[in-house]
Each structure stands twice: as structure tokens, then as C-alpha cells.
Amino acid sequence: xxxKALYILALIxxxxxxxxxxxQFSQFYANYLYLAPSxxxxxxKNRIAFNYRNxxxxxxxxxxxxxxxxxKYFDKFRxxxxxxxxxxxxxxxxxxxxxxxxxxxxxxxITDDWHAxxxxxxxYTERGIDFERLLWNDQISATGxxxxxxxxxxxxxxxxxDFSTSLLVYSNKxxxxxxxxxxxxxxxxxxxxEGDETNPAKVPVKYSFFGGVKFIRPEHLLRPIPTSxxxxxxxxxxxxxxxxxxxxxxYRAPLVAGFWYRGIPMYKEVFNRDACTVLLGIKxxxxxxxxxxxxxxSKLIASTGGSHEVSLSYVFKTKAIKHKIKMVPCPEx
Length: 333
Known about the structure:
single chain
């Protein structure tokens, strides 16, 4: 019991220390508008996607993250347009981070084999908390908890605007990209500060680098269904926090399986050995459904319950396009 209480305390401290850190998804290619705006209009179809992540379910009031997105490709302008909405809720006080944004990408040819897609993302972000759900130390006494606290009551919410940009280059077999988020460093403090220099809740800039390669075993008489294997990586850095995801996907219609390791081997400046992720998915002509589970491999292995994540996407056409677009060979989970 004492051990579990210490872990809960550590979670609370991490929440306040990491107040300006971004939520994450293990199935980041199933939520590719969250990964980078260059993916807006990724295919020649319209796409709507839903994502849900339940992180550390064995710890009361852990992290719950929801996301919904829609994107479309405009053949006439060689452009993609996307809309992304997500909310992250954590802690006893329901600390909420909500974001709604619009994205734009443009696809152009570098050579016959290589294409590039720059992307832009403008969004509105808001943070809020249910202050009355919190219990402060001056409310705790031997005779019972006091109904009110002398703690300074924060604002109900803090809102701001933000901007991100990205670049993706790809061929039929390879893809490589980079994204820079929070270029406007939005304010998420629920308390008033006279200047930016004293405000600890300015969201730090986040840098992401991702890429991979796709191998296809073609169909033949004894194997009528082609099989593909994709190797991929994602590196993220936000202030002193660094994270590397390395993974592999196996696909043979309609089944998808994947395995990821999250951590930076041999890097010991900060603790970064986090989790291993397994993925199972079904991919059909119009719909993808995926489930993944994160096995915690840090010191919290016995107390978190890992992380569950579910993704659902549906694609549809409104009318045929005149020019067939070059597909990015990245995974869809």
C-alpha cells in the first residue's frame, strides 16, 4: 500500500514538473495529423480517424487522451487539408488540455521517384482544471478534512494560439520527415504572471524526426496475398526530454502486427527506458481498426498497468480524382 502511494505521489509530481509536455500516442501513424501536418491529405480519399489512449490504468486518475481528425486531398491544387481535435485529461483535478486546429500540406515532385510535402498547422489550445476536486495540505487534519483551502484559486482556464510546421520527403520505398511544434510557445498557466520570463507554463518547442523503409514480398501462385514489412522510427525532443521509438510492422491482408521499443539505448543522461508496445490491427479497403498495449519496462512496471490504445479510421471517396497521387509508404497504425 505504501509502495503504491509513493508511485501515485511520483505521478503527481511528474504532472506538475511536466506541465508543459505533450501527450503521446503509440499508434502515431494511425493519428498522423497529430504527428505532422505534412500528412494532411495523405491519400486520394477522405479520411476520418478516432484515437483513444488510456495510460497507466492501475493508477487512479491516470492519463486519458482522445483524438478525432478529418483530412482530404484536393487534386486540382495538389494540396491536403486537415482538421485535428484532441483532449488530454489527467489527475484528481481533471487537468485538461484541449486543442482544435486546421492543417495544410502541398505535394510537389523533386524527381520522378521522390516527392516532398511541407505542412502547416494553426491551432487554438486551452488548459483547465476542476479546482474544487483538489485536496490541499491545509485541508487535512486529524478531525477530518476541512471544506475549503487557503490555496490561491487559479483561473478556470488558460487559452492561446499555436503554430507548427513540418516537411516530409518520400519515395515508393522510403520516407523521412521532421516536425517542429509549439513555435508560438502558448501559455498554459492557470495563474497570472506579469511577464513571459517568470511564467513556467510556456509550452516548450518540440522537435520530431521520423522515417522508415517498406519491403514488399510480391504475390505468386503459392502465396497469392502479398506481404509487406516496414521498419520505422520516431525521435522526439522537448527541452531536456528525449524519446526514441523503434519498431517493425508486418502486414498480410487483412492482418497487421507490430512491435515497438520506446527508449534510447546506452543514453543515460535522463531516464528514458519506458515501454515495449505490441500492436494488432485489421486493415480493409475502407476501414482500419487497431489495438496496442504498452508493457511498462521502467521502475513503475508493477504499478501502472501499462497503457491501452485503440484506433479506428474510415476512408471514402466523394468523386474520382484526375491524377493519381503518389502514396507515402509509411504504416497506417
